[in-house]
Amino acid sequence: MTFISLVRHGQTDWNLTKRIQGSSDIPLNDTGRAQAETTGRALSGGRFDAIYASPLSRALETARIIAGHVGLGDPHRLPEVAERNYGEAEGLTGEQILARWPDGEPVPGRETRDEVVARALPALRELGERHPGENIIVVSHGGVISSLVRHVTDHALPGPGELIPNGSVHRFSYDAGALTLDRFNLGPEDRDLFTASVM
User: Fold this and answer.
1) Strands (DSSP E) along the chain, which ranges?
2) Burial 134-160, CB ≥16 within 10 A → b, else e
3) Residue 124 DSSP SS3
4) What is the pLDDT of residue 197?
5) If we measure between CA atoms, which residue out of 127, 117, 138 comes closest to residue 175?
6) β-pairing, 2-8 with 169-175?
7) Active site includes 76?
8) DSSP 8-state code for residue 23
9) What value does the mean pLDDT take over residues 99-120?
C-alpha cells in the first residue's frame, strides 16, 4: 500500500481577499510561508520517500519549504495537480461571480470538477504504481483536493460549508489500482495522525 498525502498550498494575497485564483500564478504571502513551515514541522516526524507539487508557484514554494523539514530534495513537478482553471472567473470574488453569472449560469472557460478528476486521479494512481509501499507528499490546491475527495467518497466529504484550509493535509491510500481517502483535513494539531501507520 502507498500513502499519498495531498497538501493544500499556503495562503496568498488572493486567498486573503477571497479572489478566485485558478490557473493564475499567484505567489505565497508571508502568512502562507508560515503555514508551509508549520505543516512541514508537523510532517517532520514521519518517513517520506518523495515529494511532488503543482507547477504553480504557490504550490511549488510550499513543497520546497515542506521538503526542507522532511529531508527531501527539490519537489518533482506534477502538472496534472495544478489548480482547476476557473476561466473568466479568475481574479473575481464570489459575489462578483454570482453577479456576472447568476442562477448557476456556466462560467466561460471554467473546468468542471469531473474534468479536474479526469486529469488528477490517473496521475495519483500512476504515483501509487511508481512508489509501491512508500509514503509520498503531493502539494496541490483546494479545487483539486476537494474534487478528488468528493469523487472518492461519493460526495460524503467535504460536508456542507466544510473548506479545505491552506496548509491542510488529506491522506489517501493507494492499493491494487484503487485510491481511497484515509485521513481528511488534518491540521497541525493532528501531528500524531500525520504519521500514523506510515512510520
Assistant:
1) 2-8, 50-53, 76-77, 135-140, 169-175, 178-186
2) bbbbbbbbbbbbbbbbbbbeeeeebee
3) helix
4) 46
5) 127
6) antiparallel
7) no
8) T
9) 95
DSSP state of 198: -
Upstream peptide bond of 158 is cis (omega within 30 degrees of 0): yes
Q: How far apart are CA 111 and CA 105, in angstroms?
A: 14
Which residue among 61, 83, 90, 111 is the active-site one?
83
Contacts of 154 (CB under 8 A, 6+ apart): none
Our measurement of the distance from residue 21's CA atom to the centroid of its chain's CA atoms, rounded to an integer in Å, reads 14
pLDDT score, position 164:
96
Catalytic residue among 9, 69, 141, 151: 9
Contact indicator for 14, 26 with CB cutoff of 8 Å? yes
Kind plus residue range of the DSSP H or E element containing 171: strand 169-175
The pLDDT value given to residue 104: 83
- What is the spatial distance between Cα 152 and Cα 98, in angstroms, rounded to a whole number? 28
Q: What percent of the chain has pLDDT over 90?
A: 90
Instruction: Give the whole-angstrom CA distance, residue 58 versus residue 62.
Output: 6
Identify the band that residue 199 occupies on the pLDDT scale cut at 50, 70 and 90: very low
Does 151 participate in catalysis according to the annotation?
no
C-alpha grid cell, residue 79: 502538472
For residues 36-44, give the mean pLDDT.
95
**Count of positions (residues) in the chain:** 199
Tell me the sheet residues that pair with 183: 171
Q: What are 148's three cell numbers?
A: 478528488
3-state secondary structure at position 111: coil
